[in-house]
Specification:
Layout (H helix, E strand, L loop, with lengths): L1 E4 L7 E2 H7 L8 E3 L7 H7 L4 H13 L5 H13 L9 E3 L4 E5 L9 H19 L3 E6 L3 H10 L5 E8 L5 H8 L6 E6 L3 H13 L1 H7 L1 E3 L5 H17 L7 E6 L4 H11 L4 E8 L4 H8 L1 E3 L19 H8 L4 H14 L1 E3 L2 H10 E5 L2 H15 L5 H11 L7 E5 L7 H8 L7 H8 L5 E3 L3 H16 L1
Parallel strand pairs: 5-15, 6-7, 6-9, 7-8, 8-16, 10-11, 10-15, 11-14
Antiparallel strand pairs: 1-2, 1-3, 4-5, 12-13
Helix pairs in contact: 3-4, 3-10, 4-5, 5-6, 5-10, 6-7, 10-11, 16-17, 16-18
The protein binds pyridoxal-5'-phosphate.
Length: 465
């Protein structure tokens, strides 16, 4: 399988190169030349596979030519064998027609582990083979950072630098990152918003000299290998709810559009998905887009679901590329003017087509808290604010298609909101308590590309000395 850039002006790459390079040289994102197809017969045969065995079937065509089958199988068995629930991603029924897919059974108790635990092992495998070292850089609004750090910590083939917006992640999220003691882990608190952090990371990647010098690699949700790992649980959930005989709708609490784009990929591969619903908080750029076809940036406002406090959803570019029938030049020029003007709009026909599949629902903080409370009162289940945004959106949908709503984080990661809504403090799993008890280690830097670049260089020089 070969991969091409959404801006149409970068070399075709193999899976390994795409995984290790993150963004394309032309500023675009890599997507596969085509989506492998699974027929109804294929789906039926996959229905009873374990999570890692299913992951193997789904990933195999995408990594073809890069990783031998036996090695891929070992990587996936190691990754998902280390999860803290035998089903890896268990389903829970919340209401007659609403189900939760529990995606918090990984190391850092959020869905990002499902992709990043795989990515860490994948990188280590590819780098050890070619005796290389990389510098992983990422921006986080909360959960990505800790999951990436947990995936990379202690691996001699890499150093990892994670930028978080100072004071804008929850204390639990910050501590999960900053209490990791491995010497190859470097935390940076940036005086700015998550979008500022993301812009710095983008600027570093746009510096071709720096990319070559430090072997910079992204682990943000734009990394194709991450998207791919996330495709797996759409299949896993739908097959358990009766696919291919029965279609399923998914509700996805959305920020960077990575998780929901993985659902789009699953549907392109033949999984019968009726609707993909992007649930947003007050930062509702996607909700406004799916209604009007116009993407318009507004300032980011803090909410109870900080991992979704995002205005520019980087993975949206991959969907736009499909909307424009894979015209890279057009995708690139629209996104460039979006950067300068702060807005763009797609045509009416294009919007109508997207609305066949996508919907978006905005849920404010008050509705988030009532969703936590209602879920607890009616089903006895404690959910975190991100999950609650999804459930509030799910309750607004009509029809009799089963709805699979994602439980993106463990409630113990956001104890304050859960307590405010229910009066109950969620029990803290042992692996989280251990992280909370450690000493914090991080630097605070100005919102400046050059300050961050200098810091990274000097840390790496110290490590090499
Ligand atoms: C990252 C995250 C999101 C948003 O996911 P995207 O892939 O960025 O859309 C939602 N909820 C939680 C708990 C997260 O960690």
């Amino acid at each position: 399988m070969k991969y091409l850039s959404t801006r149409g002006n970068a070399p075709l790459l193999s899976f390994s190169d795409v995984a290790l390079s993150g963004t394309a040289r032309d500023g675009g994102l890599y997507v596969p030349e085509s989506f492998p197809q699974f027929s109804r017969v294929d789906l039926k045969a996959m229905a009873r596979l374990s999570y890692p065995a299913l992951a193997f079937e789904i990933l195999k065509p995408y990594v073809a030519g890069s990783i031998p089958d036996a090695d891929l199988k070992t990587l996936l068995d190691d990754t998902y064998g280390a999860f803290h629930h035998p089903a890896v991603a268990p389903l829970q029924q919340i209401d007659t027609n609403i189900f939760l897919l529990e995606l918090f059974h990984g190391e850092t108790l959020a869905f990002k582990d499902y992709a990043l635990q795989f990515l860490g092992r994948l990188f280590d495998y590819l780098l050890a083979k070619s005796r290389r070292h990389i510098t992983v850089i990422g921006a986080t609004s909360g959960d990505t950072g800790s999951a990436a750090i947990a995936a990379c910590a202690g691996k001699s083939t890499m150093d990892i630098f994670v930028l978080h917006p100072q004071g804008r992640t929850s204390a639990v999220q910050r501590r999960q990152m900053t209490t990791v003691t491995a010497a190859n882990v470097h935390n940076i608190a940036v005086e700015g918003s998550f979008d500022d952090c993301q812009d710095i990371v983008k600027a570093l990647f746009a510096d071709a000299k720096l990319v070559d010098e430090l072997h910079l690699t992204a682990v943000n949700s734009i990394n194709w290998a991450r998207i791919l790992a996330q495709v797996v649980y759409y299949f896993y959930a739908a097959l358990r709810l009766g696919a291919p005989e029965r279609a399923v709708s998914f509700v996805i609490p959305t920020g960077n559009f990575g998780n929901i784009y993985a659902g789009y990929v699953a549907r392109q591969m033949g999984l019968p998905i009726q609707r993909l619903v992007a649930a947003t908080n007050r930062n509702d750029i996607l909700a406004r887009f799916f209604e009007s076809g116009a993407m318009e940036i507004r300032p980011v406002e803090p909410s109870l679901s900080p991992s979704m406090d995002i205005q520019i959803s980087s993975n949206f570019e991959r969907l736009l590329f499909e909307v424009y029938k894979r015209d890279g030049a057009r995708t690139g020029s629209v996104l460039k003017s979006f950067r300068t003007d702060g807005s763009f709009a797609i045509g009416k026909a294009e919007l109508t087509e997207l609305q066949q599949l996508f919907r978006s629902v905005r849920v404010d903080d008050a509705a988030t808290l009532s969703s936590i409370r209602d879920t607890y009162q009616h089903s006895g289940v404690l959910v975190d604010p991100h999950t609650a945004v999804g459930l509030a959106a799910a309750r607004q949908l009509e029809g009799d298609t089963p709805i699979m709503s994602f439980a993106c984080a463990h409630p113990a990661k956001f104890p304050d909101s859960v307590r405010d809504a229910t009066g109950v403090t969620p029990p803290v799993p042992a692996r989280l308590q251990a992280a909370l008890d450690g000493t914090e280690r991080f630097v605070v830097l100005e919102n400046s590309v050059s300050k961050v670049r200098n810091h990274i260089r000097s840390q790496l020089q110290q490590a090499a000395a």
